[in-house]
Design goal:
Length: 242
């Protein structure tokens, strides 16, 4: 079957685009209806900008995802010490190193199940203010869960990080292969070991309130070719109404 050779020219901030052929960059391969597509994650941007992907100029269009304002009472997470900032920086760099890897894909689809089947409490992409001070945007999806609610792997993956981080608390990072990763923060406790291969639906941990939080929930991040993309592209959950 002859493949569609139309190349994408634009996409949304934090979204994905499909190339009909392999290109000179990191891609995640999807096979559907006997056709192969090469998927690339787009960066989060605050204004429209062009990015070069595999030799193609792609217009990444900004999206108004809204804003989120939260209050953190614990002074440790509002004004961390130099030692705590250095710890958080080292943890961030470790995650960046891990998600730069491209291992063999475990599946050739983008079919996820929700890690917790409840409601979205804070969507992806919101401009974030903590105690009224601007902070980095919320490049993840927060899902409601009571303390101890099971968290399941949304796809087959290998646990490349099972640890406790300053901001993320108890965290798991799964490598799904092909430059696709997902992470799960603020867990009450882990349920898998680093290096373990887990199947879709396996309980990998439990909802908690470790790290910098205002209450128990799951902070779920998806990385594709090192960009944090919108998890809500892959699941169907309702939003908690204010």
């Amino acid at each position: 079957m002859e493949q569609n050779t139309i190349f994408p020219t634009e996409g949304k901030s934090g979204g994905i685009i499909y190339f009909p052929i392999n290109i000179d960059t990191q891609t995640y391969k999807v096979i559907k209806d006997n056709q192969t597509f090469h998927i690339v994650g787009l960066p989060y941007v605050t204004e429209d900008q062009f990015v070069n992907i595999g030799g193609s100029e792609i217009l990444v269009k900004a999206v108004d995802y809204g804003e989120s304002r939260i209050t953190i009472d614990n002074p440790t997470f509002v004004s961390p010490s130099l030692e705590e900032r250095e710890r958080a920086s080292a943890e961030y760099l470790l995650v960046q190193k891990l998600i730069a890897q491209q291992t063999e894909q475990l599946a050739f689809d983008l079919e996820f199940i929700s890690p917790v089947d409840t409601l979205i409490t804070s969507p992806y992409g919101k401009k974030r203010f903590i105690n009224d001070a601007p902070r980095s945007p919320h490049l993840a999806t927060d899902i409601r869960g009571k303390e101890g609610t099971p968290i399941v792997a949304p796809k087959d993956g290998r646990a490349v990080l099972v640890d406790n981080h300053f901001y993320g608390g108890n965290i798991v990072l799964l490598d799904h292969g092909g430059g696709l990763f997902s992470s799960y923060s603020h867990m009450q406790k882990h349920n898998i070991l680093e290096g373990e291969l887990v199947k879709k639906g396996t309980v990998i941990g439990f909802v908690g309130s470790t790290g910098r939080v205002t209450g128990p929930h799951l902070h779920w991040t998806i990385y594709l070719n090192e960009n944090r993309i919108n998890p809500e592209l892959f699941i169907e959950l309702d939003y908690l109404q204010d």
